[in-house]
């Protein structure tokens, strides 16, 4: 089968298309013919080996798991003898974090993994990145920040994969939403449902005097220190991008109380907890209250172009690879 591998840390040119053996499902696994898979900013960071201390866990000189990609959608083409929840021909979507990558033609997934039957009202392309953007954001809003109806939230990077999902989810959950983005993305963020939009190229929200219960920095360009004055007395600064300053502030605010800095590695949560959130997202997708915005799609063979676009910083919403099977 066609498979993308990361030969070493570096630019998008380290991504190579190669042929590998099609996997064989174990007794509790389903074999999925991948129709679409995600390409994310996190994939780009893994490809670069950044931050450098992360290489202690993912591989010192090159990634231990060479195949990139976590989100997927596709068709079940084979199943192990113990599988009962899925049948051959089922359209499914989900995520693999600590295991084989999804930028390939086939992948095996445990029946009890982060995988569900795909809603009929969304395409394979729209389904593939749901667990990369929306699952991370619903975890941060509900599990980490414990957001309540009526609270005020500011979402930095509101036009990206996590941000576009967060704007929609925060509105579903009853919050007053302010999105922060560049000039060219203002209308897009308004279309996602934001009550207010701030152009970061013209306005520093932290100096406006407005207070927020939650500041969700989806892209890791802010700091707790810079945002502290814009938080209410019990406000929370949350981000999926962990650096040493955020780690320090997490420890410090965890001891002192008051305003908090928080981080979570969503993919490392127990699968049963992720499945509860994933099922909730599926309901939102089915009733149309949540949509997946696809900026660009590429063929599997165009993986280098996809990563170059992610690295450009111009990405809106999600990027997917489409398999021509």
Write up this protein.
The chain has 325 residues and is an alpha/beta fold. It folds into two domains: 2-129 and 293-322, Medium-chain alcohol dehydrogenases, catalytic domain (Quinone Oxidoreductase, Chain A, domain 1, Alpha-Beta Complex); 132-267, NAD(P)-binding Rossmann-like Domain (Rossmann fold), CATH 3.40.50. The protein has ten helices and 15 strands. The chain has helices at residues 41-48, 55-58, 124-127, 130-144, 161-172, 186-192, 224-227, 244-256, 271-287, 303-311, and strands at residues 2-6, 15-19, 29-39, 71-79, 91-95, 106-110, 115-117, 152-156, 176-181, 196-199, 212-217, 231-239, 260-263, 294-299, 318-322. The strands form three sheets. Strands 3, 4, 5, 6, 7, 14 and 15 form a seven-stranded mixed sheet that branches. Strands 10-9-8-11-12-13 form a six-stranded parallel sheet. α10 links the parallel β14 and β15 (318-322). α4 packs across α9. It is globular, with a radius of gyration of 19 Å. The protein starts with a strand and ends with a strand.
């Amino acid at each position: 089968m066609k498979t993308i591998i990361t030969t070493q840390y570096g630019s998008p040119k380290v991504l190579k298309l190669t042929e590998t053996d099609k996997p064989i499902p174990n007794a509790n696994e389903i074999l999925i013919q991948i129709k679409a898979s995600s390409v994310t900013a996190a994939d780009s960071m893994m490809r670069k080996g950044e931050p450098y201390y992360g290489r202690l866990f993912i591989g010192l000189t090159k990634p231990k798991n060479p195949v990139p990609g976590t989100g997927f959608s596709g068709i079940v083409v084979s199943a192990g003898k113990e599988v009962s929840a899925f049948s051959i021909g089922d359209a499914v979507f989900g995520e693999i974090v600590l295991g084989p990558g999804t930028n390939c033609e086939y992948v095996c997934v445990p029946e009890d993994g982060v995988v569900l039957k795909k809603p009929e009202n969304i395409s394979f392309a729209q389904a593939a990145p749901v667990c990369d953007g929306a699952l991370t954001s619903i975890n941060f809003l509900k599990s980490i920040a414990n957001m309540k109806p009526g609270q005020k939230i500011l979402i930095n990077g509101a036009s990206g994969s996590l941000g576009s999902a967060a704007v929609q989810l925060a509105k579903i959950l009853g919050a007053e939403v302010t999105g922060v983005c560049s000039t060219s993305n203002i209308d897009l963020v308004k279309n996602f449902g934001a009550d207010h939009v701030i152009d970061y190229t013209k306005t520093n929200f932290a100096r406006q005097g407005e207070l927020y219960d939650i500041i969700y920095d989806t892209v890791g360009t802010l700091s707790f220190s810079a945002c502290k004055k814009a938080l209410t007395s019990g406000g929370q600064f949350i981000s999926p991008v962990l650096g040493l300053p955020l780690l320090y502030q997490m420890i410090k605010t965890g001891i002192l109380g008051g305003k908090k800095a928080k981080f979570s590695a969503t993919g490392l949560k127990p699968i049963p907890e992720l499945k509860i959130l994933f099922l909730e997202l599926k309901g939102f997708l089915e009733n149309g209250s949540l949509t997946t915005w696809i900026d660009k799609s590429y063929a599997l063979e165009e993986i280098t172009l996809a990563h170059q676009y992610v690295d450009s910083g111009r990405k809106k919403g999600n990027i997917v690879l489409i398999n021509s099977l």
